[in-house]
Amino acid sequence: MIEHHPTRRRVLRAAGGLSAAVGLGGADVLSAAPATAATGTGAGEPAGEPVEDGFGLRIVDRDESDPRLRRYRFATGAIGWNPAVNVLLPDGYHDGGRRYPVLYLFHGGGPTADFTWFDCLGVRAWTAGKPVVVVMPDGGHAGWYANPVNSHAGPRKWETFHMAQLVPWIDANFRTYAELDGRAVAGFSMGGFGALKYAAKYPGHFASVSAHSGPASLRRDFGVVTHWANTSAAAADLAGGTVYGAPRWNEARVSADNPVENVENYRGKRIFLVAGTGDGQVEWFDGITEKQVLAGQRELRGLLLSAGIAHEAHEEPGGHEFRVPLFLHDLSGILTRLRPA
Protein backbone atom coordinates (compact mmCIF):
# COMPACT_ATOMS: atom_id res chain seq x y z
CA MET A 1 0.00 0.00 0.00
CA ILE A 2 1.11 3.54 -0.72
CA GLU A 3 1.62 5.63 2.40
CA HIS A 4 1.21 9.42 2.25
CA HIS A 5 3.12 11.63 4.65
CA PRO A 6 1.84 15.18 4.17
CA THR A 7 2.77 17.93 6.58
CA ARG A 8 0.24 19.15 9.13
CA ARG A 9 -0.18 22.35 7.12
CA ARG A 10 -0.96 20.39 3.96
CA VAL A 11 -3.44 18.14 5.74
CA LEU A 12 -5.28 21.09 7.27
CA ARG A 13 -5.34 22.81 3.90
CA ALA A 14 -6.61 19.58 2.38
CA ALA A 15 -9.42 19.26 4.89
CA GLY A 16 -10.22 22.92 4.45
CA GLY A 17 -10.45 22.42 0.71
CA LEU A 18 -13.53 20.32 1.24
CA SER A 19 -15.39 23.30 2.59
CA ALA A 20 -13.61 26.27 1.04
CA ALA A 21 -15.84 26.20 -2.01
CA VAL A 22 -18.88 27.01 0.09
CA GLY A 23 -17.43 29.54 2.54
CA LEU A 24 -17.72 28.11 6.03
CA GLY A 25 -18.30 30.10 9.17
CA GLY A 26 -16.54 29.66 12.51
CA ALA A 27 -16.69 26.46 14.49
CA ASP A 28 -18.18 27.83 17.70
CA VAL A 29 -21.11 30.09 16.92
CA LEU A 30 -23.79 28.71 19.22
CA SER A 31 -25.51 31.54 21.03
CA ALA A 32 -27.06 29.91 24.05
CA ALA A 33 -29.96 31.18 26.10
CA PRO A 34 -30.10 30.26 29.79
CA ALA A 35 -31.25 26.70 30.33
CA THR A 36 -34.67 26.15 31.81
CA ALA A 37 -36.25 23.21 33.56
CA ALA A 38 -37.57 20.68 31.06
CA THR A 39 -39.46 17.48 30.72
CA GLY A 40 -39.48 15.14 27.74
CA THR A 41 -42.10 13.05 26.00
CA GLY A 42 -42.05 10.06 23.70
CA ALA A 43 -42.02 10.34 19.92
CA GLY A 44 -45.75 9.60 19.76
CA GLU A 45 -46.66 12.41 22.14
CA PRO A 46 -46.66 16.16 21.56
CA ALA A 47 -43.10 17.10 22.48
CA GLY A 48 -42.63 19.57 25.32
CA GLU A 49 -39.37 21.07 26.52
CA PRO A 50 -36.34 18.91 25.61
CA VAL A 51 -35.18 16.55 28.31
CA GLU A 52 -32.03 17.63 30.10
CA ASP A 53 -30.68 14.09 30.32
CA GLY A 54 -31.33 11.10 28.12
CA PHE A 55 -29.61 8.59 25.84
CA GLY A 56 -26.22 9.60 27.22
CA LEU A 57 -26.77 13.28 26.38
CA ARG A 58 -27.09 16.28 28.69
CA ILE A 59 -27.94 19.75 27.43
CA VAL A 60 -25.34 22.27 28.55
CA ASP A 61 -26.31 25.19 26.28
CA ARG A 62 -29.40 26.01 24.28
CA ASP A 63 -30.92 28.77 22.20
CA GLU A 64 -34.64 28.35 21.54
CA SER A 65 -35.44 32.00 20.84
CA ASP A 66 -36.09 31.35 17.15
CA PRO A 67 -39.44 29.59 16.57
CA ARG A 68 -37.92 27.48 13.77
CA LEU A 69 -34.29 27.02 14.70
CA ARG A 70 -33.27 25.29 17.94
CA ARG A 71 -29.58 25.23 18.87
CA TYR A 72 -28.27 22.81 21.46
CA ARG A 73 -24.90 21.89 22.86
CA PHE A 74 -24.53 18.56 24.63
CA ALA A 75 -22.23 16.94 27.14
CA THR A 76 -21.65 13.34 26.15
CA GLY A 77 -19.14 10.68 27.10
CA ALA A 78 -18.78 9.89 23.39
CA ILE A 79 -17.05 13.20 22.58
CA GLY A 80 -14.35 14.94 24.62
CA TRP A 81 -15.93 18.37 24.13
CA ASN A 82 -19.52 19.59 23.90
CA PRO A 83 -20.77 19.07 20.32
CA ALA A 84 -23.61 21.19 18.99
CA VAL A 85 -26.74 20.29 17.08
CA ASN A 86 -29.09 22.52 15.10
CA VAL A 87 -32.71 21.42 14.76
CA LEU A 88 -34.66 23.30 12.08
CA LEU A 89 -38.39 22.89 12.57
CA PRO A 90 -40.98 23.17 9.79
CA ASP A 91 -43.29 26.15 9.52
CA GLY A 92 -46.38 25.47 11.60
CA TYR A 93 -44.68 22.95 13.87
CA HIS A 94 -46.03 24.71 16.97
CA ASP A 95 -49.60 24.94 15.66
CA GLY A 96 -50.69 21.37 16.24
CA GLY A 97 -49.84 17.79 17.03
CA ARG A 98 -48.66 16.57 13.62
CA ARG A 99 -45.60 14.38 13.41
CA TYR A 100 -42.94 14.92 10.76
CA PRO A 101 -40.25 13.05 8.88
CA VAL A 102 -36.63 13.94 9.67
CA LEU A 103 -33.67 14.77 7.43
CA TYR A 104 -30.23 14.39 9.03
CA LEU A 105 -27.91 16.75 7.17
CA PHE A 106 -24.14 16.25 7.56
CA HIS A 107 -21.42 18.83 6.93
CA GLY A 108 -18.04 18.36 5.27
CA GLY A 109 -14.62 18.52 6.87
CA GLY A 110 -12.20 21.33 7.50
CA PRO A 111 -10.35 23.18 10.25
CA THR A 112 -13.37 25.42 10.86
CA ALA A 113 -16.10 23.06 9.67
CA ASP A 114 -19.26 22.47 11.60
CA PHE A 115 -23.00 22.35 11.07
CA THR A 116 -23.24 26.13 10.63
CA TRP A 117 -22.22 26.14 6.98
CA PHE A 118 -25.71 25.01 6.03
CA ASP A 119 -26.95 28.12 7.83
CA CYS A 120 -24.54 30.21 5.76
CA LEU A 121 -25.75 28.63 2.53
CA GLY A 122 -29.40 29.09 3.31
CA VAL A 123 -30.93 25.85 4.55
CA ARG A 124 -33.64 27.83 6.29
CA ALA A 125 -34.84 29.28 2.99
CA TRP A 126 -34.48 25.96 1.17
CA THR A 127 -36.81 24.25 3.65
CA ALA A 128 -39.35 27.04 4.08
CA GLY A 129 -42.81 25.57 3.74
CA LYS A 130 -41.44 22.02 3.63
CA PRO A 131 -42.98 19.55 6.13
CA VAL A 132 -39.71 18.14 7.48
CA VAL A 133 -37.53 18.46 10.57
CA VAL A 134 -33.87 19.02 9.63
CA VAL A 135 -31.21 17.93 12.12
CA MET A 136 -27.69 19.32 11.57
CA PRO A 137 -25.16 17.89 14.04
CA ASP A 138 -21.51 18.58 14.55
CA GLY A 139 -19.29 15.90 13.06
CA GLY A 140 -15.82 17.14 13.98
CA HIS A 141 -13.27 18.95 11.83
CA ALA A 142 -12.26 15.60 10.34
CA GLY A 143 -14.33 13.15 12.36
CA TRP A 144 -15.39 11.08 9.35
CA TYR A 145 -18.62 10.08 11.11
CA ALA A 146 -16.68 7.29 12.75
CA ASN A 147 -15.49 5.86 16.03
CA PRO A 148 -11.74 6.08 15.47
CA VAL A 149 -9.38 3.20 16.09
CA ASN A 150 -7.41 5.49 18.42
CA SER A 151 -7.49 9.10 19.60
CA HIS A 152 -4.93 11.08 21.58
CA ALA A 153 -7.34 13.99 22.11
CA GLY A 154 -9.97 12.32 24.27
CA PRO A 155 -13.06 10.48 23.05
CA ARG A 156 -14.15 11.24 19.48
CA LYS A 157 -16.85 8.62 18.94
CA TRP A 158 -18.92 10.44 16.35
CA GLU A 159 -20.78 7.33 15.21
CA THR A 160 -21.87 6.61 18.78
CA PHE A 161 -22.93 10.22 19.29
CA HIS A 162 -25.00 10.33 16.11
CA MET A 163 -26.52 6.87 15.95
CA ALA A 164 -26.79 5.63 19.55
CA GLN A 165 -27.51 8.97 21.22
CA LEU A 166 -28.73 11.72 18.91
CA VAL A 167 -31.21 9.80 16.73
CA PRO A 168 -33.20 8.42 19.70
CA TRP A 169 -32.95 11.77 21.51
CA ILE A 170 -34.48 13.56 18.53
CA ASP A 171 -37.31 11.03 18.32
CA ALA A 172 -37.98 11.38 22.05
CA ASN A 173 -38.03 15.18 22.03
CA PHE A 174 -39.67 16.17 18.76
CA ARG A 175 -42.79 14.98 16.98
CA THR A 176 -41.13 12.68 14.48
CA TYR A 177 -41.75 9.32 12.85
CA ALA A 178 -39.33 7.05 14.71
CA GLU A 179 -39.13 4.52 11.89
CA LEU A 180 -37.33 3.72 8.65
CA ASP A 181 -39.79 5.60 6.43
CA GLY A 182 -39.58 8.62 8.71
CA ARG A 183 -35.86 9.36 8.27
CA ALA A 184 -33.46 10.44 5.52
CA VAL A 185 -29.75 11.19 5.66
CA ALA A 186 -27.75 13.44 3.35
CA GLY A 187 -24.39 15.17 3.38
CA PHE A 188 -21.67 17.00 1.52
CA SER A 189 -18.11 15.73 1.08
CA MET A 190 -17.06 13.98 4.32
CA GLY A 191 -20.73 14.27 5.31
CA GLY A 192 -21.75 12.54 2.09
CA PHE A 193 -19.50 9.65 3.03
CA GLY A 194 -21.08 9.65 6.50
CA ALA A 195 -24.55 9.50 4.99
CA LEU A 196 -23.64 6.56 2.74
CA LYS A 197 -21.91 4.79 5.60
CA TYR A 198 -24.74 5.16 8.14
CA ALA A 199 -27.45 4.20 5.62
CA ALA A 200 -25.69 0.91 4.89
CA LYS A 201 -24.36 0.18 8.38
CA TYR A 202 -27.75 0.88 9.99
CA PRO A 203 -30.10 -0.32 7.24
CA GLY A 204 -33.24 0.02 9.36
CA HIS A 205 -32.74 3.72 10.09
CA PHE A 206 -32.89 5.72 6.83
CA ALA A 207 -35.20 5.28 3.84
CA SER A 208 -33.30 7.82 1.71
CA VAL A 209 -29.57 8.51 1.42
CA SER A 210 -27.86 11.31 -0.51
CA ALA A 211 -24.16 11.98 -1.09
CA HIS A 212 -23.24 15.35 -2.57
CA SER A 213 -19.60 14.99 -3.62
CA GLY A 214 -19.22 12.29 -0.97
CA PRO A 215 -16.59 9.53 -1.32
CA ALA A 216 -18.10 6.07 -1.78
CA SER A 217 -15.08 3.77 -1.91
CA LEU A 218 -12.41 3.40 0.78
CA ARG A 219 -10.13 0.85 -0.91
CA ARG A 220 -9.85 1.89 -4.55
CA ASP A 221 -6.57 3.36 -5.83
CA PHE A 222 -4.51 1.86 -3.00
CA GLY A 223 -7.00 3.09 -0.41
CA VAL A 224 -6.32 6.75 -1.01
CA VAL A 225 -9.55 7.90 0.71
CA THR A 226 -8.74 5.78 3.77
CA HIS A 227 -5.23 7.28 3.92
CA TRP A 228 -6.75 10.73 3.59
CA ALA A 229 -9.26 10.03 6.36
CA ASN A 230 -6.42 8.87 8.62
CA THR A 231 -4.10 11.80 7.93
CA SER A 232 -6.74 14.54 8.04
CA ALA A 233 -8.22 13.16 11.26
CA ALA A 234 -4.77 12.79 12.81
CA ALA A 235 -4.01 16.46 12.18
CA ALA A 236 -7.40 18.07 12.76
CA ASP A 237 -9.24 15.93 15.30
CA LEU A 238 -7.30 13.11 16.95
CA ALA A 239 -3.89 14.61 17.87
CA GLY A 240 -2.08 11.92 15.91
CA GLY A 241 -4.68 9.18 16.29
CA THR A 242 -6.32 7.63 13.26
CA VAL A 243 -9.78 6.64 12.07
CA TYR A 244 -8.80 3.26 10.61
CA GLY A 245 -5.38 2.54 12.10
CA ALA A 246 -1.85 3.08 10.81
CA PRO A 247 0.45 1.88 9.45
CA ARG A 248 -1.84 -1.17 9.28
CA TRP A 249 -5.56 -0.65 8.93
CA ASN A 250 -8.22 -2.32 10.99
CA GLU A 251 -9.51 -4.21 7.97
CA ALA A 252 -12.82 -5.20 9.59
CA ARG A 253 -13.54 -1.55 10.40
CA VAL A 254 -12.76 -0.45 6.85
CA SER A 255 -15.05 -3.12 5.40
CA ALA A 256 -17.88 -2.25 7.80
CA ASP A 257 -17.70 1.44 6.82
CA ASN A 258 -17.06 1.02 3.10
CA PRO A 259 -20.18 1.78 1.03
CA VAL A 260 -19.08 -0.34 -1.94
CA GLU A 261 -18.65 -3.38 0.30
CA ASN A 262 -22.18 -3.11 1.68
CA VAL A 263 -24.23 -2.59 -1.46
CA GLU A 264 -27.01 -5.01 -0.55
CA ASN A 265 -27.89 -2.86 2.46
CA TYR A 266 -29.05 -0.08 0.13
CA ARG A 267 -31.81 -2.21 -1.34
CA GLY A 268 -35.22 -0.62 -0.95
CA LYS A 269 -33.80 2.83 -0.22
CA ARG A 270 -33.86 5.96 -2.31
CA ILE A 271 -30.26 6.69 -3.35
CA PHE A 272 -29.08 10.05 -4.71
CA LEU A 273 -25.49 10.68 -5.81
CA VAL A 274 -23.77 13.84 -7.08
CA ALA A 275 -20.15 14.31 -8.15
CA GLY A 276 -18.21 16.83 -10.23
CA THR A 277 -16.35 15.82 -13.35
CA GLY A 278 -13.24 17.63 -12.17
CA ASP A 279 -13.22 20.88 -14.12
CA GLY A 280 -11.93 23.61 -11.83
CA GLN A 281 -11.60 21.09 -9.02
CA VAL A 282 -10.49 21.90 -5.50
CA GLU A 283 -7.43 19.81 -4.65
CA TRP A 284 -7.23 17.90 -1.37
CA PHE A 285 -3.62 16.81 -1.07
CA ASP A 286 -1.00 15.09 -3.19
CA GLY A 287 -3.06 15.65 -6.32
CA ILE A 288 -6.25 13.96 -5.10
CA THR A 289 -9.25 15.79 -6.51
CA GLU A 290 -12.98 15.54 -7.07
CA LYS A 291 -12.13 13.00 -9.75
CA GLN A 292 -11.44 10.54 -6.93
CA VAL A 293 -14.94 11.14 -5.55
CA LEU A 294 -16.37 10.65 -9.03
CA ALA A 295 -14.46 7.40 -9.53
CA GLY A 296 -15.71 6.03 -6.20
CA GLN A 297 -19.29 6.99 -6.95
CA ARG A 298 -19.04 5.36 -10.36
CA GLU A 299 -17.79 2.20 -8.67
CA LEU A 300 -20.78 2.26 -6.31
CA ARG A 301 -23.17 2.95 -9.17
CA GLY A 302 -21.84 -0.01 -11.11
CA LEU A 303 -22.35 -2.31 -8.15
CA LEU A 304 -25.85 -0.96 -7.55
CA LEU A 305 -26.70 -1.51 -11.20
CA SER A 306 -25.38 -5.08 -11.11
CA ALA A 307 -27.46 -5.75 -8.00
CA GLY A 308 -30.60 -4.31 -9.60
CA ILE A 309 -30.83 -1.51 -7.02
CA ALA A 310 -32.38 1.69 -8.36
CA HIS A 311 -30.54 4.95 -7.82
CA GLU A 312 -30.29 8.49 -9.19
CA ALA A 313 -26.88 9.88 -10.09
CA HIS A 314 -25.65 13.20 -11.44
CA GLU A 315 -22.26 14.11 -12.89
CA GLU A 316 -21.80 17.85 -13.09
CA PRO A 317 -19.09 20.15 -14.45
CA GLY A 318 -16.79 21.59 -11.82
CA GLY A 319 -15.02 20.39 -8.74
CA HIS A 320 -15.60 19.78 -5.06
CA GLU A 321 -18.53 22.06 -4.35
CA PHE A 322 -22.04 21.99 -2.96
CA ARG A 323 -24.57 22.39 -5.77
CA VAL A 324 -27.66 24.04 -4.32
CA PRO A 325 -30.00 23.38 -7.30
CA LEU A 326 -29.27 19.65 -7.06
CA PHE A 327 -29.82 19.72 -3.32
CA LEU A 328 -33.24 21.31 -3.86
CA HIS A 329 -34.05 18.61 -6.41
CA ASP A 330 -32.82 16.03 -3.92
CA LEU A 331 -34.97 17.50 -1.15
CA SER A 332 -38.10 17.07 -3.27
CA GLY A 333 -37.21 13.42 -3.81
CA ILE A 334 -36.54 12.93 -0.11
CA LEU A 335 -39.97 14.25 0.83
CA THR A 336 -41.61 12.07 -1.80
CA ARG A 337 -39.91 8.98 -0.38
CA LEU A 338 -40.55 9.66 3.32
CA ARG A 339 -43.78 9.24 5.20
CA PRO A 340 -45.70 12.51 4.89
CA ALA A 341 -46.43 14.73 7.86
Write up this protein:
Helix 1 packs across helix 6. The longest helix is centred in the C-terminal third of the chain and has 17 residues. The protein has a single domain, classed as Alpha/Beta hydrolase fold, catalytic domain (Rossmann fold). The chain has nine helices and ten strands. It is α/β, with parallel strands linked by helices. A hairpin with a 5-residue loop joins strand 2 and strand 3.
Q: Which descriptors apply to this entry?
A:
341 residues, alpha/beta, Rossmann fold, globular, disordered N terminus, transferase
For the termini, the CA-CA separation is 49 Å
What is the second-level CATH architecture? Answer: 3-Layer(aba) Sandwich
Q: What would you call the structural class?
A: alpha/beta
> Helical region count?
9
Share of residues in strands? 15-25%
The counted number of beta strands is 10
Enzyme class: transferase
Keywords: Acyltransferase, Transferase
InterPro entries: AB_hydrolase_fold, Esterase-like, Mycobacterial_A85_antigen, TAT_signal
Pfam families: Esterase
Please give a quick description of this structure.
By secondary structure, the protein is of the alpha/beta class. The protein has one domain: 3-Layer(aba) Sandwich (Rossmann fold).
List the helices and strands and how they pair.
Layout (H helix, E strand, L loop, with lengths): L7 H13 L32 E2 L2 E7 L5 E8 L7 E5 L13 E5 L9 H6 L1 H4 L6 E5 L20 H16 L9 E6 L1 H12 L6 E5 L7 H17 L14 H7 L12 E7 L13 H17 L5 E5 L7 H14 L4
Parallel strand pairs: 5-6, 5-7, 7-8, 8-9, 9-10
Antiparallel strand pairs: 1-2, 2-3, 3-4, 4-6
Helix pairs in contact: 1-6
